[in-house]
């Protein structure tokens, strides 16, 4: 098992990492940054773990499933936090995080 | 300028990072690993810079263009190295590297 | 040239990446997060490029010098931004960023 | 809990990531690359997870302990693989991996 078999989860993780980086950066430019503080924090953690998960999967690592299990938890938490805000980047990020959490749950199963 | 305007280059960089990780790992499993040594080395460097480029672009960084210029050089060098080998993962990696080099050149221009 | 010759710059970049991640996260917990917005943004970009620079240097890449030149610029910009704030994590980050900028300038020379 | 409390584990993970990148790259330059194939593979996976662990710890993430538990397993596996080879970079990497595994086990406890 490896890159081609796991491609939909790899793509979801890479997409999620990018959207989290975008959301965190966009949150710092919002009028009420304080309201976005939790979102920025979760985005940063989520981007870090999503990319590491994509790396292990791309390498066909036997540890990929374990990492995807943690990744699913973080994506879900990040999606919940982003989902509280009506800004476009937060709504987009919430949606992508939830899709990624689902892909990672399937990988980890 | 940022995530949405730069999305095709971000996607190319993320795809390239994943395929390089896959190619490096696959190269270590080939019969003649020694022949693949240069490919593994380039894949590792290319994955590192592609991901950093995707990060800066996703964050809308004013330094993204500069980094994409280096990324284009590394993708081109990696694509040339991979292109020497007939294995499927090397051919796939060569193609993706060249597409990414082109996207990064456009970004850097 | 590679890991052992470049070790002081590698260590500076890794330290800088970690301190930037810490500073960004700590900034989101400050009373006046809005004042910290620019600092969070710079921290995120700086961490990304510092880690990629450490990677290329550790791999002994011929592209390491080029990347360290960009890294020096980002570290300097991040250090200047962090230096505006009196919080302990910003002052610590400003100092580490400036040391890293100096190490990267030497590498790039 | 966060950056300063977890600093010895963060430093161990960053050091381990750098040494793994160095070892993988050095392995590709050995006379008998085929013998090093497993080492290169483990180095790549170990570097990826060590850096993600350092990131989560630097951010003070509540998920850091979980990730350090996986990281300890991968560092141990990588250290065992590297320990089979007498080259200086493999012996150095084996030692750093084992120290990092120990730090990560303490974090995860």
From TrEMBL, chains A, B, C, D:
Coiled-coil ranges (or none): none
Family matches, as Pfam families: Csp
Highest taxon, organism lineage: Bacteria
InterPro entries in UniProt: Csp_YhjQ, YHJQ-like
Protein name: Four-helix bundle copper-binding protein
């Amino acid at each position: 098992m490896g890159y081609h078999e796991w491609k939909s989860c790899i793509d979801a993780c890479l997409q999620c990492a990018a959207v989290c980086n975008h959301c965190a950066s966009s949150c710092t430019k919002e009028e009420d940054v304080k309201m976005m503080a939790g979102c920025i924090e979760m985005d940063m953690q989520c981007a870090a773990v999503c990319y590491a998960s994509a790396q292990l999967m791309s390498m066909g690592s036997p540890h990929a499933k374990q990492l995807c299990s943690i990744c699913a938890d973080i994506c879900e938490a990040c999606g919940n936090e982003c989902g509280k805000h009506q800004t476009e980047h937060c709504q987009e990020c919430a949606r992508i995080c939830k899709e990624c959490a689902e892909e990672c749950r399937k990988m980890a199963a």
